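Quick one, tokens below:
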């Protein structure tokens, strides 16, 4: 009886470890960066009407706030960087707060390989 209970506990623990592992990694097996192809898709999409969460969903990548640029722009603006394929490439995105408190994308600037995709 104790052996059976021990096996059940081990199975439950292993399952929980796998579930948390997939959640921590995204579980989708996707890229953790913006590819040049995905950037070109975004460029042709309705990006000016996207909020940060919508852009993250579209790109499949979490953005990171650029504190210095956000401070430089001031209140009502937020600058988010989406990592590219290497350390020298990323998508630099400016979000602007609307009068109603919602946010929209004001500009996108590809750098590195993402900018090279335009050539």
């Amino acid at each position: 009886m104790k052996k059976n209970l021990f096996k059940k506990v081990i199975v439950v623990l292993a399952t929980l470890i796998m579930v948390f592992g997939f959640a921590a990694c995204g579980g989708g097996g996707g890229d953790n960066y913006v590819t040049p192809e995905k950037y070109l898709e975004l460029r042709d999409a309705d990006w000016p009407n996207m909020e940060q969460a919508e852009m993250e969903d579209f790109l499949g990548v979490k953005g990171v706030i650029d504190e210095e640029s956000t401070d430089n722009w001031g209140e009502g603006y937020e600058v988010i960087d989406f990592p590219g394929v290497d350390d020298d490439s990323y998508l630099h995105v400016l979000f602007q707060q609307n009068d109603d408190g919602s946010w929209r994308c004001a500009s996108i600037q590809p750098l590195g390989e993402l900018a090279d995709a335009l050539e």
